[in-house]
Every structure is written in structure tokens, then in C-alpha cells.
Amino acid sequence: MSVTSARPPLIERWREHLPFEEGDPVVSLCEGATPLLPAPVLSERVGAEVWMKCEGANPTGSFKDRGMTCAVSAALREGAQAIICASTGNTAASAAAYASRAGIRCAVIIPDGKIATGKLAQILAHGARVVSVAGNFDRGLELVRELVERHPISLVNSVNEFRVEGQKTGAFELLEELGRLDLLCIPVGNAGNITAYWRGFSEMGATPRLFGFQAEGAAPLVAGHIFEHPETVASAIRIGNPARGAEALDAVEQSQGAIRAVSDTQILAAYRLLASREGMFCEPASAAAVAGLLEYGADGAERVVCVMTGRGLKDPDTALDHNEGAVIPCEPQMAAIEAAVLG
Ligand code: AN7
User: Fold this and answer.
1) CA angle 282, 64, 234 (to 5 degrees)
2) Contact 160, 280 (CB under 8 A)
């Protein structure tokens, strides 16, 4: 029996702009078409119309699914039996999910002890092989690039063109919904996403400014040199040598934008503000874009979009460690409940 879903897979929705023909295999979890939410509190603070593109609403909880549906569909078309990636967590979670859907094997290389708990849970649940290297993401990526030269395994990091192709649909959706925007604020790690948004805007003839934000302890594109030991609370963007760094710098230059750094303190302040005032529970890396907007301002832009790249549930440990709320213990009696609730 053939079952089809009401919402088309991303590849079908944007087929004329993507390198897939009718009849090619499509591996989809119903990605894309994510909510675009107004941000009244941010709008008030920066004096512009600010929107949040809720990429955490994708099937695996991050923006990576847009590119992964394309990378895994293309791998299947090429007859691949296995895929691999190095990852700070979200790429791996997405790869593991799409591989399970496609019925192919998946291995992921993660930096030792440095990926968020929710992401690790996802990867293991989907049955991928998890290899933890004593080193950071950048070393992991070097190793997988070499590994795929030696073995017939398809690399699904964003150095894979299909990832960027799928990812650019985020820009298409923004233009479809808003018609025009002046400024895009986006976190930058390996620099695939900012590269893809610029490609998407360019293909549609749009030229918003791009403001990319890195964490201060992992800011190679701001400092102009590789970070050997990147560090930040935003583990997703703990990357010292971005694979698409040169393209990202090109994109910001062409768009008359910039890549700037925000501190972990600023990231966590934005993270708490989003969750407590905008109803937006994102992961710390996503909050970096908002921290940057709050710190540097909209610079005259009227309409701003912040890309909320991943869901807060990805990283429960940071949520528990960095919020003021506490659990109040209570006896199961009315007087105690009254005191606890109203007190
Ligand atoms: C939530 O999963 O690099 O600049 O290996 O998970 O395209 O790398 C994740 C990156 C922003 C940065 N926000 O995007 C990985 C990985 C979140 C992320 C980024 C990531 P890129």
C-alpha cells in the first residue's frame, strides 16, 4: 500500500530549484515549511520588526534536516549503502534519522564528551554507530574526509553540495512569507548554513544583509585565524576551522554584512530572554544570533529575521544549569500546596 502525506517533502516542494529529477528516490521526514514567528519583545528592544524562523520545528529538531533530505536522497541515488559525518551533534542526529528511514547504515564521529545530551540520545535511538574521538569537531572532520577517500561511504557533512542545496530552501521560505527582509541574523559554526542562505537569496534575486555570529571562544572568522582549542557553552558551534569559512566571508561581504563574536554570557542572556519572554526555547547556538542582534543592533534594518537553528530540548543540561527557576518540593496537602503555589 502506498501512503502519501498532505505536506510535500522539501525536495518535491522546491524540485525546480534542486538537483533532483522526477522519479529519483526521495528520503523525507516531512522537513521544511517551519513556522515564522514574530518576536514582539526583540522587536521592541531593537526598534525593528523582528521575526524568528523556527528551524527547531524540523523533524529532528534542527535546521539540518533540509540539507540532509537532499544528501541522503542523493546518496541513495548513487547506490550508497552507508553515510558518515563528523558532528557537534545536530548533523549526526539528522543523518542518523534519515539513514534509518532510508534503510542504510550511518556512522557519526563526535568530539569526546562535548555533544548535548538530547542529540546523543537521538543518534543512539536511530541506531547509528557513534565514534567519539579524543579531539574537537575539526579533527573529526579531517579524519572523515580522509576515511571516505579510502572507503565507499558517502560523506554528509555540509562540504557535501547537496546539503547546501537543500539548506538554501530556508531562504526561499522567508522570501515567500515576507516578500522582503533587510537583515538575516544567523549563528555560524562550520559556515554551511550562512553559505546556503546567501545562495538561496541570490538565486531569488534578493539581497538582505547577513549578520553571522560566532561564539567568542570559537570565532575563527572574526579573528582571522584557526582556533586550535575552540570553547563555548554553545557546543553546536564549538568549531575552530569552518569548512565553508571562505564562502561565508564572501557572502557577508557581498551582502554588506559582517561576522561578529558574542560572549557566552551574552549567549546565555539571550537564551533566557527568548525562553522566558518570547516562548522560544532554543539551544544556545541559536541564541547566539539573537545575542548578536541585541548587542550590535539592527543597524537601520526595518525587517529582521533570526534563524532559530535548533530546539532547546536538544541540550537539557544547559537549560537546567543556566536558568533561575527551581523545583519546589511540597507535601501533598492543601495548605502546603497553597504556600508553594502562591508563596
Ligand atoms: C543548532 O551538527 O556543525 O554554520 O555538526 O547545530 O552551518 O555549521 C552544527 C551547527 C548553528 C552552525 N546552530 O551552523 C553539526 C554542526 C545549530 C547547529 C549551527 C549548528 P553551520
Assistant:
1) 40
2) no
Q: Is the CB of 9 under 6 A from ligand 1?
A: no
Q: Which residues contact 312 (CB under 8 A, 6 or more apart)?
A: 56, 275, 281, 282, 283, 319
255 lines ligand 1 (CB under 6 A): no
Distance (angstroms) between ligand 1 centre and the Cα of 155 equals 16
pLDDT tens-digit profile of 310-321?
A: 999 999 999 999
- CB 219 within 8 Å of CB 227: yes
90 ligand 1 Cβ < 6 A: yes
pLDDT of residue 265 exceeding 80, the answer is yes
Three-state SS annotation for 224-254: CCCCCCCCCCCHHHCCCCCCCHHHHHHHHHH
Q: Model confidence over 46-83: pLDDT tens digits? A: 999 999 999 999 999 999 999 999 999 999 999 999 99
State the pLDDT at residue 246. 97
At 135 the three-state DSSP class reads: coil
For residue 137, which atom of ligand 1 is closest to its CA?
A: 5
Helices (H) and strands (E) in the chain, counts: 15, 10
With cell 547506490, the residue in question is 79
